[in-house]
Amino acid sequence: MTLCRRPLSPLPADIPSGEPFFLAPASSVRKNDERCVTYSWLSQRVLFGLVYELLLPDYFNIMSLDSGVVIGSFIPSTEIVPGLSSPGDIDVLVIPYEGEELELSHTLVIEIKVIRASFARQGKSPNQFGFSQAGALLKAGFPHVAVGHLIVSDDRSPEHAWRKQLMAKIVDTDGACGPFQTVMCDMLPSDLLRRSHGRLRHNCPDPRLGHFSAFPWRSGTWFPEGERAALNPHMRSDVLEGVYAYYQKHGRHFLRTRRYPPADPVALSDFERALLFEWMAEKMRRDFS
Hints:
With 289 residues, the chain is α+β, with helices and mostly antiparallel strands. The protein has 8 helices and 11 strands.
């Protein structure tokens, strides 16, 4: 495969953990709007990384110390591929970088669907799986394409449905574990993930499409389930140039996520934080207009 590299310019803000990176109308947050749920997933960098490894395992596991990804969201498709009317938006656009260069040849686009589930409705599915939109993105010539189902649930299982699990605590700074203990756990998120991804795997019409299910809700991290997004043999160079042209114009709205966290994270200055809020407000107006 011929690599397509371009300068990493502009460089998105390096937002440290604990800082906000998106704004959304309160009414959209209360409704678990697709954009808000997607932002929640992207802001959980460990969970995002677990998904990225499932989708691009070979690439993820050779990424260098100075590498990472820049992530765009809810981008009008025609701003990258003129004439591409379906899907209307590219929900998530992930461009890896190494050093000071973008690696456009491994660009990943993801079609997102939200599943609003409960203990009583564990078989809940979205109205559409997202494969037709993802197939159109594959046909358009993007390098890697996937469908993601993000599960939200404020429900909990009744205690009679909790199951025994083994738990160990970290006991020192070297990461040593103490003895296993048996505890009772509400495994509803795990059950929802297994059911959701089983439906994705059963209904996927094209082995080149990746797919995953993730649970970006509650505290802690529930391991996602997924399968890789194969390299598109019909990847188009003009699509890669369209991705780069869009990034050059809107790069400040992208989220930068490093492959490895910095050893000495630097806090944002008051000026940087004010500028970041200005960019977040600008993106909110764009996304929710």
